[in-house]
Amino acid sequence: MYKPIKIVRITTVPISLKVLLTGQLDFMYNKGFEVTAISADGKEIKEISKSGKIPHLIFPLTRKITPLTDLYCLLKLFFYFIKHKPDIVHSHTPKAGLIGMLAAKLAGVPLKIHTIAGLPMMTAKGWRKKILIATEKLTYKAADEVLPNSKSMYNYLLDENLIEASKLKIISEGSSNGFDDERFNPEKILSGKIDEVKRMIEFDTKNFYLLFVGRMVIDKGLVELIESFLYLQSSYPNLKLLLLGEYEDDLSNIPEHIKWQIKTNSNIFHLGWRSDVEIFLSIANVLIHPSHREGFPNIVLQAAAMKCPILCSKIPGNIDIISSNQVGYLFAPQDKKSLINTFENFISDIELATMKAEKLQAYVWQNYPRRKVHEKIYKYYLTKLQEVELGQTSFSFQES
Protein backbone atom coordinates (compact mmCIF):
# COMPACT_ATOMS: atom_id res chain seq x y z
CA MET A 1 0.00 0.00 0.00
CA TYR A 2 1.35 3.38 -0.99
CA LYS A 3 1.58 6.32 1.34
CA PRO A 4 2.54 9.91 0.57
CA ILE A 5 6.01 11.18 1.37
CA LYS A 6 5.87 13.51 4.37
CA ILE A 7 8.18 16.50 4.11
CA VAL A 8 8.63 19.33 6.61
CA ARG A 9 10.17 22.58 5.39
CA ILE A 10 11.38 24.76 8.24
CA THR A 11 12.71 28.33 8.30
CA THR A 12 13.32 30.67 11.21
CA VAL A 13 10.86 33.36 10.11
CA PRO A 14 7.88 33.10 7.73
CA ILE A 15 9.18 35.69 5.28
CA SER A 16 11.89 33.16 4.34
CA LEU A 17 9.19 30.65 3.38
CA LYS A 18 7.43 33.34 1.40
CA VAL A 19 10.40 34.92 -0.38
CA LEU A 20 13.07 32.22 -0.58
CA LEU A 21 10.76 29.29 -1.37
CA THR A 22 7.99 30.92 -3.38
CA GLY A 23 5.93 28.26 -5.16
CA GLN A 24 8.21 25.40 -4.13
CA LEU A 25 6.00 23.93 -1.41
CA ASP A 26 2.93 23.92 -3.66
CA PHE A 27 5.04 22.32 -6.41
CA MET A 28 6.01 19.45 -4.11
CA TYR A 29 2.39 19.09 -2.95
CA ASN A 30 1.25 18.79 -6.55
CA LYS A 31 3.88 16.05 -7.04
CA GLY A 32 2.20 14.01 -4.32
CA PHE A 33 4.16 15.02 -1.22
CA GLU A 34 2.44 15.74 2.08
CA VAL A 35 4.04 19.10 2.87
CA THR A 36 4.10 20.99 6.18
CA ALA A 37 5.70 24.41 6.72
CA ILE A 38 7.16 25.48 10.07
CA SER A 39 8.49 28.87 11.21
CA ALA A 40 8.08 31.47 13.92
CA ASP A 41 5.01 33.70 13.86
CA GLY A 42 4.81 36.62 11.44
CA LYS A 43 2.59 38.65 9.14
CA GLU A 44 3.48 36.55 6.07
CA ILE A 45 1.80 33.38 7.38
CA LYS A 46 -1.55 34.10 5.72
CA GLU A 47 0.12 34.37 2.33
CA ILE A 48 2.04 31.12 2.83
CA SER A 49 -1.16 29.21 3.61
CA LYS A 50 -3.53 30.98 1.20
CA SER A 51 -3.58 28.08 -1.29
CA GLY A 52 -5.05 25.88 1.43
CA LYS A 53 -2.69 23.06 0.49
CA ILE A 54 0.18 23.64 2.90
CA PRO A 55 -0.47 23.68 6.67
CA HIS A 56 1.76 26.12 8.53
CA LEU A 57 2.77 25.52 12.14
CA ILE A 58 4.18 28.18 14.47
CA PHE A 59 7.16 27.27 16.66
CA PRO A 60 9.13 29.69 18.93
CA LEU A 61 12.15 30.09 16.63
CA THR A 62 14.28 33.22 17.05
CA ARG A 63 17.03 34.81 14.98
CA LYS A 64 19.08 35.80 18.03
CA ILE A 65 21.15 33.70 20.44
CA THR A 66 18.45 32.63 22.95
CA PRO A 67 19.54 29.37 24.68
CA LEU A 68 16.43 28.74 26.83
CA THR A 69 13.97 29.51 24.05
CA ASP A 70 16.06 27.44 21.64
CA LEU A 71 16.00 24.43 23.99
CA TYR A 72 12.23 24.72 24.40
CA CYS A 73 11.78 24.91 20.63
CA LEU A 74 14.09 21.91 20.14
CA LEU A 75 11.97 19.81 22.50
CA LYS A 76 8.72 20.90 20.84
CA LEU A 77 10.06 19.99 17.40
CA PHE A 78 11.42 16.68 18.66
CA PHE A 79 8.01 15.61 20.01
CA TYR A 80 6.32 16.83 16.86
CA PHE A 81 8.62 14.72 14.69
CA ILE A 82 8.17 11.69 16.97
CA LYS A 83 4.38 11.99 16.66
CA HIS A 84 4.04 12.76 12.94
CA LYS A 85 7.04 10.81 11.60
CA PRO A 86 8.09 12.93 8.59
CA ASP A 87 10.24 11.22 5.99
CA ILE A 88 12.19 14.40 5.16
CA VAL A 89 13.00 17.46 7.25
CA HIS A 90 14.54 20.16 5.09
CA SER A 91 15.68 23.32 6.87
CA HIS A 92 16.66 26.71 5.52
CA THR A 93 18.25 29.63 7.48
CA PRO A 94 20.77 29.20 10.33
CA LYS A 95 18.63 28.93 13.48
CA ALA A 96 16.00 26.74 11.83
CA GLY A 97 18.85 24.58 10.58
CA LEU A 98 20.37 24.15 14.02
CA ILE A 99 17.11 23.42 15.85
CA GLY A 100 15.49 21.53 13.00
CA MET A 101 18.42 19.23 12.22
CA LEU A 102 19.09 18.41 15.89
CA ALA A 103 15.42 17.64 16.57
CA ALA A 104 15.15 15.54 13.40
CA LYS A 105 18.35 13.65 14.28
CA LEU A 106 17.12 12.87 17.79
CA ALA A 107 13.71 11.82 16.47
CA GLY A 108 15.20 9.45 13.91
CA VAL A 109 13.89 11.23 10.81
CA PRO A 110 15.16 9.20 7.82
CA LEU A 111 16.32 12.12 5.66
CA LYS A 112 17.66 15.38 7.09
CA ILE A 113 18.67 18.12 4.64
CA HIS A 114 19.87 21.66 5.34
CA THR A 115 20.21 24.39 2.72
CA ILE A 116 22.77 27.18 3.17
CA ALA A 117 21.73 30.43 1.53
CA GLY A 118 23.96 32.76 3.52
CA LEU A 119 26.14 32.64 6.63
CA PRO A 120 26.03 35.40 9.29
CA MET A 121 29.37 34.15 10.63
CA MET A 122 31.08 35.40 7.45
CA THR A 123 30.85 38.96 8.75
CA ALA A 124 30.67 38.30 12.52
CA LYS A 125 33.58 38.96 14.85
CA GLY A 126 34.88 37.90 18.25
CA TRP A 127 32.86 35.60 20.52
CA ARG A 128 29.78 35.85 18.30
CA LYS A 129 31.72 34.48 15.34
CA LYS A 130 33.00 31.57 17.43
CA ILE A 131 29.49 30.69 18.57
CA LEU A 132 28.13 30.89 15.02
CA ILE A 133 30.91 28.65 13.69
CA ALA A 134 30.24 26.08 16.43
CA THR A 135 26.49 26.06 15.80
CA GLU A 136 26.96 25.73 12.03
CA LYS A 137 29.25 22.75 12.52
CA LEU A 138 26.67 21.18 14.84
CA THR A 139 23.96 21.70 12.23
CA TYR A 140 26.06 20.02 9.54
CA LYS A 141 26.90 17.12 11.83
CA ALA A 142 23.21 16.45 12.48
CA ALA A 143 22.22 16.73 8.80
CA ASP A 144 22.54 13.88 6.33
CA GLU A 145 23.35 16.28 3.51
CA VAL A 146 24.02 20.02 3.27
CA LEU A 147 23.10 22.01 0.19
CA PRO A 148 25.02 25.26 -0.32
CA ASN A 149 23.05 27.14 -2.93
CA SER A 150 26.10 28.34 -4.84
CA LYS A 151 29.43 26.91 -5.96
CA SER A 152 31.38 29.66 -4.26
CA MET A 153 29.61 28.92 -0.95
CA TYR A 154 30.50 25.24 -1.45
CA ASN A 155 34.16 26.21 -1.83
CA TYR A 156 34.01 28.53 1.19
CA LEU A 157 32.69 25.74 3.43
CA LEU A 158 35.52 23.45 2.38
CA ASP A 159 38.21 26.14 2.57
CA GLU A 160 37.14 26.98 6.14
CA ASN A 161 37.08 23.28 7.12
CA LEU A 162 33.48 23.57 8.29
CA ILE A 163 32.29 20.30 6.78
CA GLU A 164 33.56 17.25 4.95
CA ALA A 165 33.04 17.18 1.18
CA SER A 166 31.03 13.93 1.34
CA LYS A 167 28.12 15.76 2.99
CA LEU A 168 27.98 18.61 0.47
CA LYS A 169 25.81 18.69 -2.63
CA ILE A 170 24.95 21.43 -5.13
CA ILE A 171 21.75 20.97 -7.08
CA SER A 172 22.38 21.86 -10.72
CA GLU A 173 23.96 25.32 -11.11
CA GLY A 174 22.93 26.52 -7.65
CA SER A 175 20.01 28.63 -6.40
CA SER A 176 17.39 27.48 -3.89
CA ASN A 177 14.39 28.46 -5.97
CA GLY A 178 15.29 29.94 -9.35
CA PHE A 179 13.38 32.97 -10.64
CA ASP A 180 9.77 33.35 -11.64
CA ASP A 181 9.99 33.55 -15.43
CA GLU A 182 6.41 34.79 -15.70
CA ARG A 183 6.97 37.67 -13.31
CA PHE A 184 10.57 38.65 -14.13
CA ASN A 185 10.03 38.78 -17.86
CA PRO A 186 10.56 42.17 -19.57
CA GLU A 187 8.04 41.24 -22.26
CA LYS A 188 5.25 40.68 -19.73
CA ILE A 189 5.51 43.84 -17.65
CA LEU A 190 2.30 45.83 -18.02
CA SER A 191 2.84 49.40 -19.20
CA GLY A 192 0.14 50.63 -16.84
CA LYS A 193 2.07 49.30 -13.84
CA ILE A 194 5.24 50.98 -15.08
CA ASP A 195 3.44 54.29 -15.49
CA GLU A 196 2.06 54.03 -11.96
CA VAL A 197 5.52 53.60 -10.44
CA LYS A 198 6.96 56.35 -12.63
CA ARG A 199 4.34 58.77 -11.34
CA MET A 200 5.12 57.79 -7.75
CA ILE A 201 8.84 58.63 -8.09
CA GLU A 202 8.26 61.56 -10.50
CA PHE A 203 10.26 59.75 -13.13
CA ASP A 204 12.25 61.89 -15.59
CA THR A 205 14.26 60.53 -18.51
CA LYS A 206 16.95 63.09 -17.70
CA ASN A 207 17.65 61.33 -14.42
CA PHE A 208 19.77 58.23 -13.84
CA TYR A 209 18.20 55.72 -11.45
CA LEU A 210 20.21 53.47 -9.13
CA LEU A 211 18.24 50.67 -7.47
CA PHE A 212 18.93 48.87 -4.19
CA VAL A 213 16.71 45.98 -3.07
CA GLY A 214 17.17 44.19 0.23
CA ARG A 215 17.05 44.35 3.99
CA MET A 216 18.16 47.73 5.32
CA VAL A 217 21.04 46.38 7.36
CA ILE A 218 24.79 46.89 7.53
CA ASP A 219 25.50 43.45 6.05
CA LYS A 220 23.74 44.46 2.83
CA GLY A 221 26.27 47.27 2.33
CA LEU A 222 23.81 50.07 2.93
CA VAL A 223 26.30 52.36 4.66
CA GLU A 224 28.91 52.39 1.89
CA LEU A 225 26.14 52.64 -0.71
CA ILE A 226 24.76 55.84 0.82
CA GLU A 227 28.20 57.35 1.36
CA SER A 228 29.23 56.52 -2.21
CA PHE A 229 26.00 57.99 -3.54
CA LEU A 230 26.60 61.25 -1.65
CA TYR A 231 30.08 61.47 -3.16
CA LEU A 232 28.84 60.77 -6.69
CA GLN A 233 26.07 63.36 -6.47
CA SER A 234 28.55 66.21 -6.87
CA SER A 235 29.69 64.87 -10.25
CA TYR A 236 26.34 63.43 -11.38
CA PRO A 237 23.58 65.76 -10.16
CA ASN A 238 20.87 63.79 -11.95
CA LEU A 239 21.53 60.62 -9.95
CA LYS A 240 18.56 59.20 -8.04
CA LEU A 241 18.70 56.31 -5.58
CA LEU A 242 15.70 54.02 -5.11
CA LEU A 243 15.76 51.96 -1.90
CA LEU A 244 13.39 49.00 -1.69
CA GLY A 245 13.54 47.41 1.75
CA GLU A 246 12.79 47.90 5.43
CA TYR A 247 14.91 48.53 8.50
CA GLU A 248 15.27 45.66 10.96
CA ASP A 249 15.62 47.62 14.17
CA ASP A 250 16.86 44.66 16.19
CA LEU A 251 19.52 43.72 13.64
CA SER A 252 20.29 46.79 11.51
CA ASN A 253 22.61 49.01 13.57
CA ILE A 254 22.52 51.53 10.74
CA PRO A 255 24.27 54.77 11.87
CA GLU A 256 21.92 57.68 12.51
CA HIS A 257 23.66 59.94 9.97
CA ILE A 258 22.92 57.37 7.26
CA LYS A 259 19.26 57.14 8.30
CA TRP A 260 19.10 60.94 8.30
CA GLN A 261 20.41 61.12 4.72
CA ILE A 262 17.90 58.52 3.60
CA LYS A 263 15.10 60.49 5.22
CA THR A 264 16.07 63.99 4.11
CA ASN A 265 18.00 63.71 0.83
CA SER A 266 15.61 64.67 -1.97
CA ASN A 267 17.45 62.39 -4.41
CA ILE A 268 16.95 59.28 -2.26
CA PHE A 269 13.59 57.53 -2.40
CA HIS A 270 13.03 55.04 0.42
CA LEU A 271 9.98 53.11 -0.74
CA GLY A 272 9.86 50.34 1.86
CA TRP A 273 9.29 46.69 1.07
CA ARG A 274 7.65 46.24 -2.34
CA SER A 275 5.99 43.25 -3.97
CA ASP A 276 6.48 44.73 -7.46
CA VAL A 277 10.27 44.64 -7.65
CA GLU A 278 10.07 43.67 -11.32
CA ILE A 279 8.58 47.09 -12.16
CA PHE A 280 11.52 48.89 -10.59
CA LEU A 281 13.99 46.60 -12.35
CA SER A 282 12.34 47.53 -15.64
CA ILE A 283 12.84 51.29 -15.13
CA ALA A 284 16.13 51.42 -13.19
CA ASN A 285 19.36 52.13 -15.06
CA VAL A 286 21.35 49.80 -12.81
CA LEU A 287 20.98 47.54 -9.78
CA ILE A 288 23.62 48.07 -7.10
CA HIS A 289 24.05 45.17 -4.70
CA PRO A 290 26.90 45.92 -2.25
CA SER A 291 26.19 43.05 0.16
CA HIS A 292 28.92 41.76 2.51
CA ARG A 293 27.70 38.14 2.43
CA GLU A 294 25.34 36.07 0.31
CA GLY A 295 24.40 32.54 -0.59
CA PHE A 296 22.93 32.95 -4.04
CA PRO A 297 21.24 36.36 -4.22
CA ASN A 298 17.71 36.31 -5.64
CA ILE A 299 17.68 39.99 -6.50
CA VAL A 300 20.80 39.71 -8.64
CA LEU A 301 19.26 36.72 -10.43
CA GLN A 302 16.01 38.63 -10.95
CA ALA A 303 17.82 41.71 -12.26
CA ALA A 304 19.74 39.53 -14.69
CA ALA A 305 16.47 37.99 -15.92
CA MET A 306 15.09 41.50 -16.47
CA LYS A 307 18.21 42.60 -18.39
CA CYS A 308 18.97 45.26 -15.81
CA PRO A 309 22.72 46.04 -15.63
CA ILE A 310 24.28 44.95 -12.33
CA LEU A 311 27.02 46.31 -10.08
CA CYS A 312 27.70 44.02 -7.13
CA SER A 313 30.29 43.21 -4.51
CA LYS A 314 32.81 40.50 -5.32
CA ILE A 315 31.76 37.95 -2.70
CA PRO A 316 30.62 34.29 -2.66
CA GLY A 317 27.15 34.05 -4.14
CA ASN A 318 27.34 37.21 -6.21
CA ILE A 319 30.24 35.82 -8.22
CA ASP A 320 28.21 32.76 -9.15
CA ILE A 321 25.94 35.00 -11.20
CA ILE A 322 28.38 37.75 -12.16
CA SER A 323 31.17 35.29 -12.86
CA SER A 324 33.33 37.91 -14.55
CA ASN A 325 33.26 41.51 -15.70
CA GLN A 326 32.13 40.18 -19.08
CA VAL A 327 28.52 40.03 -17.84
CA GLY A 328 28.41 42.66 -15.09
CA TYR A 329 30.51 44.83 -12.80
CA LEU A 330 32.23 43.66 -9.63
CA PHE A 331 33.71 45.82 -6.88
CA ALA A 332 35.50 45.04 -3.63
CA PRO A 333 33.14 44.51 -0.68
CA GLN A 334 32.96 47.21 2.01
CA ASP A 335 35.07 49.48 -0.20
CA LYS A 336 33.58 52.86 -1.14
CA LYS A 337 36.43 53.78 -3.46
CA SER A 338 36.04 50.54 -5.41
CA LEU A 339 32.27 51.02 -5.64
CA ILE A 340 32.67 54.59 -6.90
CA ASN A 341 35.32 53.63 -9.46
CA THR A 342 33.20 50.74 -10.70
CA PHE A 343 30.16 52.96 -11.10
CA GLU A 344 32.15 55.52 -13.07
CA ASN A 345 33.50 52.74 -15.29
CA PHE A 346 29.95 51.52 -15.83
CA ILE A 347 28.45 54.91 -16.65
CA SER A 348 31.26 55.79 -19.06
CA ASP A 349 30.04 53.16 -21.55
CA ILE A 350 26.32 52.41 -21.25
CA GLU A 351 26.30 50.56 -24.57
CA LEU A 352 28.84 48.08 -23.22
CA ALA A 353 26.80 47.73 -20.03
CA THR A 354 23.72 46.88 -22.09
CA MET A 355 25.63 44.20 -24.01
CA LYS A 356 26.78 42.65 -20.74
CA ALA A 357 23.22 42.64 -19.41
CA GLU A 358 21.96 40.90 -22.55
CA LYS A 359 24.63 38.22 -22.28
CA LEU A 360 23.83 37.58 -18.62
CA GLN A 361 20.10 37.48 -19.30
CA ALA A 362 20.56 34.67 -21.83
CA TYR A 363 22.58 32.67 -19.28
CA VAL A 364 20.07 32.90 -16.42
CA TRP A 365 17.10 32.15 -18.66
CA GLN A 366 18.85 28.98 -19.75
CA ASN A 367 19.72 27.78 -16.24
CA TYR A 368 17.42 29.25 -13.59
CA PRO A 369 13.71 29.35 -14.52
CA ARG A 370 11.82 28.39 -11.36
CA ARG A 371 10.10 25.26 -12.63
CA LYS A 372 13.42 23.86 -13.85
CA VAL A 373 14.95 24.35 -10.38
CA HIS A 374 11.88 22.83 -8.68
CA GLU A 375 12.05 19.75 -10.92
CA LYS A 376 15.70 19.22 -10.01
CA ILE A 377 14.99 19.51 -6.26
CA TYR A 378 12.10 17.05 -6.62
CA LYS A 379 14.28 14.50 -8.39
CA TYR A 380 16.97 15.04 -5.75
CA TYR A 381 14.45 14.13 -3.03
CA LEU A 382 13.52 10.93 -4.85
CA THR A 383 17.14 9.93 -5.28
CA LYS A 384 17.95 10.54 -1.62
CA LEU A 385 14.86 8.65 -0.44
CA GLN A 386 15.87 5.65 -2.50
CA GLU A 387 19.33 5.81 -0.95
CA VAL A 388 17.80 5.43 2.53
CA GLU A 389 15.63 2.56 1.30
CA LEU A 390 12.39 4.49 1.29
CA GLY A 391 11.94 4.34 -2.45
CA GLN A 392 9.24 3.28 -4.84
CA THR A 393 8.24 0.15 -2.90
CA SER A 394 6.89 2.34 -0.10
CA PHE A 395 5.89 5.66 -1.63
CA SER A 396 3.78 7.05 -4.43
CA PHE A 397 5.87 9.17 -6.86
CA GLN A 398 4.82 11.28 -9.80
CA GLU A 399 7.60 11.46 -12.36
CA SER A 400 7.83 14.53 -14.57
Structural commentary:
By secondary structure, this protein is an alpha/beta fold. 44% of the residues lie in helices and 14% in strands. It has 16 helices and twelve strands. It has helices at residues 14-20, 24-30, 45-48, 67-84, 94-107, 126-142, 151-159, 191-200, 222-233, 256-264, 277-283, 298-305, 318-321, 336-347, 350-367, 370-387; strands spanning 6-11, 34-39, 56-58, 88-92, 111-116, 145-148, 208-213, 239-244, 268-270, 286-289, 310-313, 329-331. It has a six-stranded parallel sheet with strand order 3-2-1-4-5-6, with helices on both faces. The protein has a six-stranded parallel sheet with strand order 9-8-7-10-11-12, sandwiched between helices. Helix 10 (256-264) links the parallel strand 8 (239-244) and strand 9. Helix 5 packs parallel to helix 6. It is globular, with a radius of gyration of 22 Å. The chain starts with 5 loop residues before the first strand and ends in a 13-residue tail after the last helix. The model is unreliable at 396-400 (pLDDT under 50).
Work out the radius of gyration: 22 Å
Return the structural class.
Answer: alpha/beta
Quick one: overall form?
globular
Q: List the total number of helices.
A: 16
What is the topology, as strand order, of the major beta sheet? 3-2-1-4-5-6
Low-confidence stretches: 396-400
What series of H and E elements makes up the topology? EHHEHEHEHEHEHHEHEHEHEHEHEHHH
CA-to-CA gap between the ends?
22 Å
